[in-house]
Amino acid sequence: MGSESGRPQKGEKMPKYFVNFTYSSGSWARLIDRPEDRTEAMQHVVEAFGGTLECMYWRMDSEDGLLIVDFPDSVAVSAVQTAIFKTGAIKSLDVYELLTKQQLRARLVLARDATQVYEVPGQSH
Questions:
Q1: Contact (CB, 8 A) for 96 and 81
Q2: Is the confidence at residue 117, as pLDDT, over 80?
Q3: What per-residue string of b and e applies to 23-53 under the rule 16 or more CB within 10 Å gives b?
Q4: What is the DSSP letter of 120?
Q5: What is this structure's pTM?
Q6: Listing from the earlier edge strand, what are the strands of the sheet with 65-70?
Q7: Under a CB-based contact definition with an 8 Å cutoff, are residues 70 and 98 in contact?
Q8: Which helix (H) or strand (E) holds 95?
Q9: At residue 116, what are phi and psi to the nearest 5 degrees?
Q10: Coil, helix or strand for 78?
């Protein structure tokens, strides 16, 4: 599954990520002065790193927006995260990998195995 680099092979599904973001006050000031759809700009940077933008939504709470994106791997998504942070346009940008139901099952099986070898602090013999 995947190549030695960890990147998906052609035809293989890429990992999916959920991204929460909050703009800086300067970005909001610029958007108020010149309202624009930021979806195209986000799509451009995501595609430049081999990803695809599934959707982008604006929120009305402590976070300004969210994205669902596919990226070849965590290195690519974190590179985009770092590049966007460097601009100062974003106040916060949190990225979470989303698991499929098959990945969740594999996680639970591995967790069950890990409970057999993990030693709880203060209870080892």
A1: no
A2: yes
A3: beeebeeeeeeeeeebeeebbeebeebebeb
A4: P
A5: 0.81
A6: 52-58, 65-70, 16-23, 90-98
A7: no
A8: strand 90-98
A9: -75, -25
A10: helix
Q: What is the Cα 77 distance to its own chain's centre?
A: 6
Residue 6's pLDDT band, with cuts at 50, 70 and 90, is low
pLDDT of res. 7: 56
Please tell me the distance from the alpha carbon of residue 114 to that of residue 103, in angstroms, as a whole number: 16
Q: Which domains does the chain have, with CATH numbers?
A: 16-116 (3.30.70.1060)
Residues 122, 17: Cα–Cα separation, whole Å: 37
**Interatomic CA distance for residues 91 and 94, integer angstroms:** 10
CB of 99 closer than 8 Å to CB of 32:
no
